[in-house]
Design goal:
Layout: H1 2-15, H2 53-63, E1 84-86, E2 92-95, H3 98-101, H4 110-117, H5 122-126, H6 139-145, E3 157-161, H7 164-184, H8 191-197, E4 209-213, H9 222-225, H10 232-235, E5 245-246, H11 259-282, E6 287-292, H12 306-319, E7 322-326, E8 352-355, E9 362-366, H13 386-401, H14 404-425, E10 430-436, E11 439-444, H15 447-459, E12 462-463, E13 465-467, E14 471-474, H16 482-497
Parallel strand pairs: 2-12, 4-5, 4-6, 6-7, 7-8
Antiparallel strand pairs: 1-2, 3-9, 8-9, 10-11, 11-14, 13-14
The chain binds pyridoxal-5'-phosphate.
Length: about 500
């Protein structure tokens, strides 16, 4: 079935040999040729505005069953491939946002289709096990082939989970358990611990905290939400913990032009972190762990230097706090290194690294000492999904075989260069272009203009995402090549020209 779908897709791709022909001046990109024959389309192709009539009709139907306020449009995933997402009205868009940054190697990748059609894999897709109690025979081998083959430095253990939030939530629990066992000096809880935890009281439910950063995003479950500080809409009306929140550096871009000011700003934030750790210890609510994104994503693509992270890591060491790096959005290659924290150049970058999105499965890596000491402490029914490990193993093969990290660095440079050029061309509209690999962003003069640019770009066949108050974030798949960058820049240029 999968192979006939593939050949139908190949035939279709020959039919759709359309080139983008938007009017107006072309972005000054030189050669942007395709370097290889691919199965994907040649460019965007728009038939209606988005959402089109069919999408609107479906939204009405779904609206009878769910809140549809966030739905952009309905998709035709059968026809979507590579960097192109096709909607139910037949519009084909270059996807530079990829399902909130979660498609690693484009839509309907032939290698992933093959994994699905392999009879040896069928059972993993049909029989979803309760992994924590009844794993399949090949689980250790598949885990080694997938997640453990890309373990962050110093970590040889990985716990799979479902989504980003439940990965962080369980990682927090691991840090608290580690911290309490460290305080006790052993892992045998007292009678009082056991009795008091059942009524949500200390010492069984201890007054411990996680330090997070203003602007950070770590998910929407109750524990994670206490460490999320990107937008009020995520947090409103939900009770939270009294945990410390440190300022995240507000840097000036391009970073290399403002090294002195930026270093001062980072030093100010680090000082605040240390003060908060001391204050919360004095308050009787010690900081068991620090959580941070290598680049704050949802909060506005805010960067900090490797030096900042190295110093923060040292502060965590000094005060006996666990250091949790949330790579849910930055992980799996988007910055040109597999993990964004690799840019810090550290042998011991973290105690815990959580992941999800492009990794296809959620979960977290951890050092040995963060392994929960008893069964069922870090546990849920599914604890991940072995079929996702099969797909991830193949994604990693494709990344290696096609040198996609190099590709990301190359297209990332072209993207950032293009954004710099557009920023110079439209100084009243764009500012603070920034990025590592294709993990790039640019600020727009205000929120309303940002939102209208996103819609105009979509109507011209390019899907982008917003972040923070007024930024646009670029989150293409790892198969986004230089010629895709140039297709994007041309459309973006046409959109921006409408505001002059
Ligand atoms: C850095 C980060 N952490 C955690 C999450 C939560 O992941 P999920 O939406 O899968 O729960 C996200 C989601 O955007 C994220 O970007």
């Amino acid at each position: 079935m999968a192979s006939s779908l593939l050949s139908r897709q190949l035939a279709l791709s020959l039919q759709y040999n359309l080139r983008l022909s938007a009017p107006g001046c072309r972005f000054a990109s030189k050669a942007a040729p395709k370097t290889q024959v691919e199965f994907e389309y040649d460019g965007p192709s728009m038939k209606t505005e988005v959402p089109g009539p069919r999408s609107k009709e479906l939204a009405k139907q779904l609206g009878e069953m769910q809140n549809v306020g966030a739905i952009n449009f309905f998709c035709n995933y059968e026809e979507s491939r590579g960097n192109y997402l096709v909607d139910v009205d037949g519009n084909r868009m270059l996807d530079v946002y990829t399902q909130i940054s979660s498609i690693p190697i484009g839509y309907s990748h032939p290698s992933l289709m093959k994994v699905l059609s392999n009879p040896n894999n069928m059972s993993a897709f049909v029989n979803r096990p309760a992994l924590g109690i009844l794993p399949p025979e090949n689980f250790p081998e598949k885990l080694a082939e997938s997640l453990l083959s890309v373990s962050p430095s110093g970590m040889s253990r990985a716990q799979t989970m479902a989504c980003g939030s439940c990965s962080n939530e369980n990682a927090f629990k691991s840090m608290f358990i580690w911290y309490r066992n460290k305080e006790r000096g052993h892992n045998n809880p007292s009678e009082e611990d056991i009795r008091s935890c059942m009524i949500n009281q200390s010492p069984g439910c201890p007054n411990l905290s996680i330090l997070s950063f203003m602007g950070g995003f770590h998910g929407r479950t109750m524990g994670c939400l206490a460490t999320t500080h990107s937008k009020a809409i995520h947090k409103l009306d939900v009770p939270s913990f009294d945990w410390p929140i440190a300022p995240f550096p507000k840097l000036k871009y391009p970073l290399e032009e403002f090294t002195r000011e930026n270093a001062q700003e980072e030093a100010r934030c680090l000082e605040e972190v240390e003060d908060l750790i001391v204050q919360w210890r004095q308050k009787g609510r010690p900081v068991a762990g620090i959580i941070i994104e290598p680049i704050q994503a949802e909060g506005g693509d805010n960067h900090a230097s490797p030096d900042f992270f190295r110093k923060l890591r040292n502060i965590a060491h000094k005060h006996g706090c666990a250091f949790h790096v949330d790579e849910v959005q930055t992980g799996c290659g988007a910055t040109g290194k597999f993990w964004a924290h690799e840019h810090w150049g550290m042998e011991d970058p973290a105690d815990i690294v959580s992941f999800s999105k492009k990794m296809l499965t959620g979960g977290f890596y951890h050092k040995d000492e963060f392994q929960a000491d008893k069964p069922y402490r870090i546990f849920n029914t599914w604890m991940g999904d072995p079929s996702k490990n099969l797909l991830l193993a193949e994604v990693l093969n494709v990344i290696r075989r096609e040198n996609l990290l190099e590709e990301v660095s190359r297209s990332g440079k072209a993207l950032l260069q293009g954004l710099y050029q557009l920023q110079a061309q439209y100084p009243n509209l764009l500012s603070s272009a920034r990025g590592v690999g294709t993990f790039c962003a640019v600020d727009i003069r205000d929120e309303a203009t940002r939102n209208s640019i996103l819609i105009k770009a979509r109507d011209k066949g390019v899907l982008l995402g917003g972040c923070g108050d007024r930024s646009i974030r670029f989150r293409p798949a790892l198969v986004f090549k230089e010629y895709h960058v140039h297709i994007f820049l041309n459309v973006f240029n046409d959109v921006l020209a409408e505001y002059n």
